[in-house]
Structures are given as structure tokens and as C-alpha cells.
Amino acid sequence: MKVRGRKDDGTNEELAELYRRYGYLLQRRSRTLLRDPAAAEDALQDAFVKIIHARSELTTVENPVAWMYRVVDRCCFDQLRRRKLRRTEPLDDHENEPHLRPGVDVESRNAALRILHELSEPEFEVAVLAYVDGMNQTEIAATLGVSRPTIWKRLTQIREHAADLLGEVP
């Protein structure tokens, strides 16, 4: 993959290698979160631009895949926020993905995916880690660098918000 108009300083090869190694995983993540193939592709492209610009950080992180997932998550959040500004109708339901993580409750995950566009960024991060990645509160707290009670509070708010939006009992 060549970037036109740029001197080849190894960046093109780095980008191609990153895409070969992680593109499928990151694309699957963006499609799961956005439930719209075109928006997912846009978010994935945005994420790879950010990953390449921050490639020095990528070499220093403990878990590069988790770091890239967080970049994709933020790009997906930006897409959802822009989509929310453009239209207010709900997204089509995205039926069960075959790639559920162990410990992820299907109904909770689907409910979280239906309301992601309504959440704040901190709530979005917690919802994705809990209901898509299947992390427990301690793991989420460690990943985000916040306390476990903060995670409990955000999860409670997310469940209440979902119940209000979906007309269910929390």
C-alpha cells in the first residue's frame, strides 16, 4: 500500500503490515459497534490514520491489540456521535454476531449496542468493555485507570439508561 505524495520512510510498509495482521480484527470490532458496513469502514480508516500517527506509542504499550481496539472504539464513538447529529431514528438491529466473547450475555450486549449512540464517551467505553469484551468490573477499572466503584456507578447508569430507552425494567 503506497501513500501518494509522501516519502517512503517505512510508514507504508508499517501500515500494510499492521493491516495484514490486525485489519480483520479491527474491522470486525468496528462493524460490531456501528452495525453499518460503510460507517465501520470509515471508522477503520480513521483509526489506521491515528494508529500510524501514534506508531511510536504503539511500540511502547503493553498490549498493542488492546491499544488499537481503544483507538477503533474512539473512532466508532465519533462516528456514532456524528450520526446522532445527522438523524434521530434508531439503527437497525444487528442480530447475534458469531464472535461473542465468553461471559458476554447476548441480550445485554444487544441492548448495549442499540443504545451506544446515546451514551457519553466514558459510558461508551465502559459499555464496550463490559458488554462486548466481557470484562468484569475490576478488569475495566484497570484498563481505564479508574476505581472499581466508578465502574460500578457507570454500569448502573448504563443499565438505567438502557431500561429507559428500551422500555425495560433494569
Structure, described:
With 170 residues, this protein is mainly alpha-helical. It has helices at 11-34, 37-53, 55-58, 64-86, 106-115, 121-132, 137-144, 148-166. It contains eight helices and no strands. Helix 5 packs antiparallel against helix 6. The model is unreliable at 1-8 and 87-98 (pLDDT under 50). It holds the Pfam family Sigma70_r2. Belongs to the sigma-70 factor family. ECF subfamily.
Relevant terms:
mainly alpha, single chain, RNA_pol_sigma-70-like, 2 domains, 0% strand, 170 residues, globular, disordered N terminus, Arc Repressor Mutant, subunit A, Rna Polymerase Sigma Factor, Chain: A
Spell out the CATH superfamily of the largest domain. RNA polymerase sigma factor, region 2, helix turn helix motif
CATH architecture of the largest domain: Orthogonal Bundle
Query: How big a fraction of the residues is strand?
Result: under 5%
Number of helices: 8
Distance between the termini: 48 Å
